[in-house]
Every structure is written in structure tokens, then in C-alpha cells.
Amino acid sequence: MMIMTPEQFAELPIVDGIRQCPTADYSAIKEFPERCDFASACVFGSNCRFASKCRFGSYCRFAPDCRFGSYCRFAPDCRFAPDCRFGSYCRFAPDCSFGSYCRFEGGYLAVADPPFIGVGNIGSRNGTTYIFRFEKGLYVRCGCFFGTIDEFERRVKQVHGDNRHARNYLALTAMAKTFWDDDVE
Fold this sequence. Notes:
Blueprint: H1 6-10, E1 14-15, E2 18-21, E3 31-32, E4 36-38, E5 43-44, E6 49-50, E7 55-56, E8 61-62, E9 67-68, E10 73-74, E11 79-80, E12 85-86, E13 91-92, E14 97-98, E15 103-104, E16 108-109, E17 116-122, E18 127-134, E19 137-142, E20 145-148, H2 149-160, H3 164-179
Parallel strand pairs: 2-4, 3-6, 4-7, 5-8, 6-9, 7-10, 8-11, 9-12, 10-13, 11-14
Antiparallel strand pairs: 1-2, 15-16, 17-18, 18-19, 19-20
């Protein structure tokens, strides 16, 4: 696998404002700008920092202590070592794996494996809704909303009443409450 130097990285082509990053070992680079599109099976070293709106192909591997900005997208089968941190609005495809002590949504510590469940094509947005198991309990990311599961349920009832979207969202939260443990409230 090619080892990418900072000089080579600076020369990568930019198409429509997005840096095109081929499969490579990027361990020698610690800071990445916004809007990088990484191919599959890339490798990144410890303590990397990625700006917002980066996209990562399948089977990428991230060493401990990587930091990701908001709105990053991860394809299937990405592997994250312990202590990675993810900004708000990141999206994860199926089969991503996370090491211990990963933090999401700007610093919340995940305490479960998997750290979240995500359901796509749900609700009025027809988008993906994530429910995380953090130290402080269950939290929901649904579009612009981020808060506790109780706050989300109240908001759903307020916005949707008892329509189909409300029933689907509330079915998801009911399932999430039993997903990790019987004692999660």
C-alpha cells in the first residue's frame, strides 16, 4: 500500500471542491481539511484530525484518538480504534465497528457495543435516526434534533400527534429501550 506524504496529499486532485483521496496509508498526515473523499481500505494513524464533511470508503481503519468533524460519512465496515471522537451529524453505514471509549455528538462517551442503533427511511424526513447508549443514558439524533430519548418522545408527540410518523418513531424508541439491557429507562 502506498504511504501518502503530506506533500503528495497537497497535490491530490480536487473535483467540484472535493479532494479525491485514493487508497493509501495516510498515517504520516495528522490534519485533514474539509471535504476529503477517501477511497476504500485507507489507513490512518493515531491522533488524526478530520475537518467537517469528509467521506470515507469501506474498510477504512482508524487508529486510537482520531477526531472527526461534523457531517462526516462512513461507508460499511470501517473500523475505529479506542478513543475516537465524532462530531455532530456524522453518519455511519452498517457493520462499522467501534473501539472502547469512543465519543459521539461532540463528546458523549458511548458505553455499549454497538454504541448506537440506526434506522433508515423512517419518519417525516425519510432519513436515518440514531439512538446512542451514552454514560448519561439514551440519546437520539434525528435530523437537527439531538437530545435524550424522553425529550425526543415528547417532541415527536408534539409535532406528529398520533400519525404514522409518530407511531414509527415511538416504536423505534420502545425497541431501543430494550436493545442493550432490560433496565434501561
